[in-house]
User: Fold these one by one.
Assistant:
Number 1:
Amino acid sequence: MTGMLAPNTLLSTSSGEEVTVVKFIGAGGQGEVYQVRYRGAIRALKWYYPASATDTQREIVEDLVARKFGDDRFLWPLALVTGDGFGYLMKLRPPNFEGLPALFRREVRIKPRELVTACIHLVEAYRALHSQGIAYRDISQGNVFFDPGSGDILVCDNDNAVVDGRQAGIEGTMDFMAPELVRADAGAIPCTQTDLHSLAVLLFMMLMNHHPLLGAREYHIRLFDESAQALLYGREPVFVFDPTDDSNRPVPGYHDTVLATWDAAPGSLRGLFTRAFTDGLRKPGLRIRETQWRDALSAVRDMIISCQRCGRQNMTDPGEVGVRSCWSCGTLLTLPPVIQITTTHPPLTRTIALAPGARVFPHHLISDPSRHDFTAAAAVAVVAEHPRVPGRLGLKNLTGNAWTARRSDGSSDEIPPGRSIDITADTRLQFGAAEAVIRRLGTT
Amino acid sequence: MSTGTAAWQVLAGTAKAARKNVNQDRHGWTVFPGGIALAVADGHGSAAHPRSDTGAQLAVETFLYAVDEFRAGLQPELPLKQVKIHAEDYLPRNLVREWRQRIEDDLAKNPVTRDQHNLPATPVLYGTTLIGAMITDRLVLGWQIGDGDLCLVTPAGQTDTPLRNLSDTLGDETDSLCSDDAQRLVRTYWGPAPAIDTPALIALSTDGLSKSFVSFDGYLDFITGVYQRIIHDSEDKVSEHLQDWLEQASSFSGDDATLIAAWQGPPARPVPEGQPR
């Protein structure tokens, strides 16, 4: 493939700066992507096909550039570029980021902890975008990339995002569209409310590896086309696990993946998905908000348990004590001790499994964090093995301040920075304004 | 991108592995005004898939049928973004669904008896890979599930294998049309005008060919060599040798080896519609 722009083609930004085409990277549905040189650095250039290079598209790009949205989770348009046509500059996607289709094809492996991390980052990224009054309008599997090693995400193709409520045509993928948009209901326009439906679909696909509305009804359609999509996603959408309508259940032997992944999902997530694809399908106001997803996903991430027999990670809820078996080998899971941290304003209790390597982060200590940071450098505590007593686990203070620990016998200790406290049931700790207690909940 | 006025020529051959009773590879093609579609399938052949030669045959036929449907849906005014959705979403889904329907039909006509296979009557009996491609004056598209190779050759002789998946080369397990959620396992290559040039040659082959070489570069050199010989010698000369080359490849890889290649030749020699073999 060569592309519309030959190597060394000179283009310019709207402010007159030079952009030099280095090489063609790939083609999409609206345009092509090139590697270019700009201000001595390598950047990416999206260049529209003539049919997509409309005045409206140009206005949208100019508006997005002017917003200077600097969030590092978005490959945001940095500058309008013109030549014989137009496009925009953005950062180049690092090679460690993979596309979701590769995940769905099982070409990329990711552990549950990093998968849930990616979901949290995704939800928070869209929350940040929506808080700017911008609707993405085209959330789909093709626009999100993730790092399987860390769960970091990148959202690309932001050139369909517009100010919430603005009328602008989009030929989005129907499988992610809110039903009212698929049906073209009077007054229905892509907005943050419709983004919430698309986000729920994307989360379901990431966690369940399946579309939430594709079950028996799709199976019986021999020729899949626009009218079939309009039926399944717009006129008569039915969640595959709708508790009151079993007409669209997954077909064993054809939809086995989602039967297995749904079974392995914790009840909190199953509950949110059920609401998103029952009430949320019919009443946009009842769709699950980003903060609801964030809190549920964060709680699940804190309770990911490795099976003591096969080592596979299992997503659990604190409320599933004593009932959940490993999705892989069927062994009843054994829960490690947990730490329950209660925040102030408003009080909110989080439960974190204290397995080796588990960390407590700043977002655990406040009620409404703007962003989760799961990097090791951000941690305030980590579960570590005693340096001289193998197998003895302690909670190590990674902050610059001493902790105060009170034991169940009434004794107390100062835990200076860099030192650990034994993980003993009923020990209480003060993390700034948040209070914590170590507990042994039993067996999940 | 070419205007598509030149006729597409096709060269194809297959060789059965010596240790096997049945060649489980199948291939086929169809030409249409301004373009061509071609496919190759590799039935798994192991004990769990005793009808995989039929599965491969049905896969090739179903692919060519699905391409006809796909082309019928390509209205001239359809935006490219929608065409991409048709290519990457509709076609894989319809291909898998139609293949499974044809399997059900075959099972109804030829029920599995206990003394035959002692296996459940499911599509797993018919497991197969599939690689398909379609070239028109607007599009160069490829689809692949499982192993095997799709190779594009430029007029300058440069090769590109855009659907190659390194995980396919590890071990003997491969994705299959009989896999759960098979439509999601289909890899697609999207090459719309004006982003791409029509390749000078497109080659589809089962893994019995590329595995016969010490390295993947050897396979690429072979494909380039086939193209150079077609250009500099003649198609007839290449055809003379193709069967020998494939049998040699099969003896090295221990697997059936099949190659189907298409290139744009002079308009005077249109290719008749090919029947999958």
Number 2:
Amino acid sequence: MTIDRRSMNRRQMMTGAAGLGLAGAARPAFAQAAGPWGEAPKSKVDKLNFVVWTYGDIYTQISKRFQADWGVPVESTISSFNDHPTKLATMYAAGEKIDVSQSSPFSFPNFVNQGLAEPLDDLPGAKEYAADFTAFTKQVAMVDGKLMGLPYFATAWVWNYYSDMLEKLKIDKPFATYEELIEHCVKAKKDGVSRYPILWIAGVGLEQLPGTWYQMTWNKGGTFFDKQGNHMLGDGSIARETLKWWANTFEKGLDIADPESLKVQFTSGAKAFGAGKNLYRGPNHHYGLNICNDPAQSPIAGKVKVHGSPNGGKTIADAHVYFLCTANRNKEWAWKLLQYLGGKTKDGVYTQANTLAKDAMLGSGYQSVMNSNVIKTGWAPWGDVPAILDIWGKSTYIGEVCSSIYQPWHFPWTDQMNIEVQKCLTGQITADACCDNLIKGIAEAKRKV
Amino acid sequence: MRPPFRWGRGRELSASWFAFFMNVPTLAFLGVVLAYPIGYAVYLSLHRVRLADLRRGVFAFAGWENYSRVLGDPLFWVAVKNTLIFTAVTVSSEIVLAVAIALLINQAGIWTSRITRSLILLPYAIPPIANGLIWTFLYSFQFGFLNRILLSTGLIHERINWAGNPDTALYAVAVPYVWRTLPFAIILVHAALQGIPRELYEQASVDGARAWHRFRHITLPMLRQILAVILVLRTAFAFSVFEEILAITQGGPGDATWVSAWYSYKITFAPPNNFGMGSASAFILALMVGLMAVVYMRTVYRRVTL
């Protein structure tokens, strides 16, 4: 039935195109439908499954779509973002079948290193996908020259500000330097406009607290490791000085940072900012705007604006990926399912990427999607799209800033980073002690691998 | 003299053999659900075990390497220290509160005690992770009910960052933990109170004993046995606290709420998934709990039963 309908459409399209003399214009659409994504694998499979972290009901939709297109039911195991690596690890260790799963860029090198991810290079259409990857996606999905995954989404780190509060302070534009950021916050506190003008995203995690430090260090011209892999956390380093500056915004210093900062994650941080108690939030994922500016979730919807960083706007970005698990039940079909999540559906459209852009303001790992109207119109309800894309253009993959991301020991070292930096921000240790401990911790983390 | 047990026609089985056979199903069950996992964890702790190794079931022998790594990790000792503090605080609070509340709901003359008795089990029915999430909302610095109530009643003048302050975070986790597990202790104490003969109190009253003396010389000695049981059980459970940590603080701020079970979890299930080291840390935790149980049994419980 499906095949008949497709051939009907092709015939109708070709007839119409010939009649109107638009055959040339119609070719790209025809070419899409005729690609490998439209062909059924020769083998048979009873069912497929994926193990993912939750995001709305996107996985219910895509499972239904897959079954409707190919007649193969898809089972899903969905856990929270933080629990996902555990869920995946236990299922894999227990010998269960896993066709497709997903990963943050921080866990992915480990999954590849431990043999969970299957190389995709030889699979039909894989090279076309890779050719359309954005720069960030390439850095995550290509491991040692091999294609190991397809993109879930991409994001860039931005600042947010509450425009009404800025007006109340009679400040005509958001900060252009870090000195101005402090000035604005001190004024907001002094004038009684906001007790805690700045909400940092500094909860325990891989992208929250470490991400904030990475972003500001990068923006100020620093990195965490040099090209040879030597740490850049020593005396006088930009990372260390940035931490000193950052810690000073907390209780033991200027006391302008919201104490909730140390608990919030990217989503809960956006929800907390939506309460309208803070002037600035960030730097964090651009799509927090779809919470802050959603009238159903935020009393200040429409009044949260996006803002770039000082120093020419240098910022960081990353991409999350889906991958084909080595514990799959059928490689051909698992590849088919993987494409529904991280590539094209049967009709040759990046359905999932488009849906995520429209429904959740997520960026895509595909250049063609990022350049399309889907982004321009899809993101528009929540933020200034040209401004976000401008910030996007100034972003660098997080792995350039902290190259240990590619190492298996990055994860345990990040655990230590969360501990030490939170101790520093709460005034238990100095920034110098924190960085010294982290330098020592590199060797310790390597031993845990 | 007891007649010997008869097994079938004319065959006799001694009482000790009979007891042995009656215990076999329990022993087999415990062997499968308890001894095997513990034994397997010990086996894993002596090997280098990564994710793929676990799937294949082939591991390289590592000797005591995992144990020396765990014992040489400063974070492990921080976690042990926090666990001991957490256990001391929660178990002692539970025992004091359980006795106090059980005494209150044991008052037959107070009609509200009957309502309390039926409601008291509610917290115990709440899943630990849900309990943690509920308290996360209560503790929220800017928007939490706790700060709002305390501010509006004038008990505090500035908001307190209960779960975000390293000085208060461990206690902020202890409160919801006690709130959830207290009903278990209350029910046990209440059941024990029901078993104390009324006549003892009546005689004491006739002799002029006041309420405190009745509690000190009748209630408390009669409760010792059940309190010893609660002490052993609650210590074992408090040692392995995990869910409230996961939901409320995730070990933070800093390492203020890293406890032993959280340490084992992170080592094992967070990449790079060092199952060998995780098993070693979990086994050390089990040994510590076992040691505490032995100490209790040799001190508190023995004294009570004598």
Number 3:
Amino acid sequence: MTERLLIGDDCAGANRPGTEMVVSEADDWFMREVLPLETTLMLYLRQNWRKRADIADLRQEVYMRVYEAAQKQIPEQAKAFVLMTARNMLIDRVRAERVIPIDVVNDLEALGVASDQPGPDHTVLARDALRRLQAALEHLPNREREAIVFRKLDGLSRREIATRMGVSEVTVKTHITRGMRALADALFSERPDLRKK
Amino acid sequence: MADVQKTSFPMPDATEVEAQAADWLDRRDRDDWTPELQAEMDAWFAHSSANRLAYLRLYAAWTEANRLAALRRPRLERIRNVGRKFGPTAIKVAAVLIVGGAAGVFTLKTPKAPQIATYSTPMGGRETLKLADGSEIELNTDTVVRVSTGSSARKVWLDRGEAYFQIQHNAARPFTVFANNHRIVDLGTKFLVQTGPESLRVSLVEGRARVETQSLWNTHQSALLAPGDVVVATATSMSLEKKTAHVLRDELSWRRGMLIFDRTPLAEVVKQFNRYNATKLAVNGRAGEIKIDGTFPANNVDDFLHIARDVLGLRVVREGAVAELSEKELLQHR
């Protein structure tokens, strides 16, 4: 398995120590090919599984399955592979539970699986990234937004942020980690049509 | 497609994993990183690929968020003030348009003298009656109503089927629904009435209403309903239960042409489909006990049969307008 050093681009905050990470080929494939499909995957899961509370776990399981496969061999067609994996997982689940979501086979063509051009999802993501991030930032609670802005835009340390905000470092940590998770959801999961409003 | 091995259960809780991943990313992002912490994080990674993937996901987003540096302060202030002004309103408008466009809507002219008009829907049909006073009656499949709107009283007889009422309350012109020898008196309300051969079911969604037995020879019974109350009334009894808003919403899914099932036995699912379609489904033996969860267009029997065969693994035998579902025998010789 080949490994390479991944370094974030050199905007403020990116060149802080600790932001680089050694990634494997499968890691790289996961971030580059799979994460941009998350909007599509979530749409598929939401359409085919009624219990909203399960969705995060279902997504996790799909990721684990495709990652496991990618460690042996990188799939050629990421989109088809991810969605077929999701479909098989749902079918396994309903068989195990004998509780059948009857629209589980909502056809994959509707999601454009057949034509796996290396395109729309990536370009849309790139173009939308800043807008999505902006919108996500805007929707964060005030304190979380403030902490993220200090960290990402001003490159301040946790201690500096704590001083500026007049709160404990533990509180800053809470704000930052919540903000991180919200940004990831905004970037990968949210449907663009909803974000635009 | 390549074989994907089944991941063994139980799966780690995704939300918990994500929280831990965020903690690690936050620590990793700071200055005081040590080899000991690195070893600890590696051990955490080794524990489950779920951990590594959750981390990679947040890491990718967090790196991507460096783009925010392009914004800097002044612009960010501006973003903050461009509020959510349009969000919810736009959604509401869209919802209204969808509702308006969903079913055939037509207006009834109200003559001065009480005059009774009959309206009906065929099997699989759905209609919305709009009364001149703004009240609406939505008829589900195979339903018959008679409507009388006089100047002193409004009356509707639900002779067959199921209807959803949204009534503009007017104390001077009470609105009464008659069904199965019972009377439902509106006190400003939205409610669903389902008639069956033996009983009547009234579900109150909003406002208040009173259900009364109409029969002359029975003891007079009545119940005052609050939102979430469901009354099942037979000729001799009346029982009341409380349903959640969620359950009531599912029961009204036919207004969108959908059937919603929530751990519903196949026997009941089949009954529901049969209300809407000419092709009749029958389910044999133990197959009737299989539970189903999901949303489905009420009038698409073909899709449902495909799923019964491909996903549930049932045997589907179709003859003319009847389709029979049964479990495959374990030892089948071809």
